[in-house]
Design a protein that fits this description.
The protein has helices at about 5-10, 20-25, 70-85, 105-115, and strands at about 25-30, 45-50, 50-60, 95-100, 125-130, 135-145. It has a six-stranded mixed sheet. It is α+β, with helices and mostly antiparallel strands. The relative contact order is 0.19. It has one domain: RutC-like (60s Ribosomal Protein L30, Chain: A, 2-Layer Sandwich), CATH 3.30.1330.40. Helix content is about 30%, strand content about 25%.
Length: about 140
């Protein structure tokens, strides 16, 4: 019995099969800076099929770690480096999660965000959070490859 037959029997739409290339590729790990120390207990970026998940990039090493604009710019620069290393780009970002230490920084963060995604911006979630190492912001993304 075929997948189509089961779909017809169940009265559901036929799902497109997963591409063999996506299955064959499996889980792939990327790191823009593989020699980073200390080595984190997570992968900087992971792809599965044609989707890339970039781990959160915090702002504790920003040029001015107490200025939200500097911190957001730095975090996005780190995200962009991971995207490029994996073969993606900011144009292919589908979803962004922004974690702010202080929601009073929302307007300033939004200025930088709007400049980075001037046309066709991705979906986004912004929440207040306690971020490690006294960072003002942490940003992670999901992107297409």
């Amino acid at each position: 019995m075929t997948r189509r037959w089961f779909a017809a029997l169940a009265g559901t739409a036929v799902l497109a099969p997963v591409s063999r290339a996506a299955v064959k590729a499996g889980k792939r790990i990327f790191a823009a800076n593989p020699n980073a120390t200390p080595k984190p207990p997570y992968s900087p970026a992971v792809a599965y099929g044609d989707v890339l998940y970039v781990s959160g990039k915090a702002s504790y090493n920003a040029p001015n770690p107490k200025d939200i604009r500097s911190c957001v710019t730095y975090a996005f620069d780190q995200v962009e480096a991971e995207l490029k290393n994996a073969g993606s780009s900011m144009d292919k970002v589908l979803k962004v999660q922004v974690f702010l230490r202080n929601m009073d920084d929302y307007a300033a963060m939004n200025e930088i965000f709007s400049a980075r995604f001037a046309t066709n911006p991705p979906a986004r979630t912004t929440v207040a959070a306690i971020i490690p190492r006294d960072s003002l912001v942490e940003i992670d993304v999901i992107a297409a490859l």
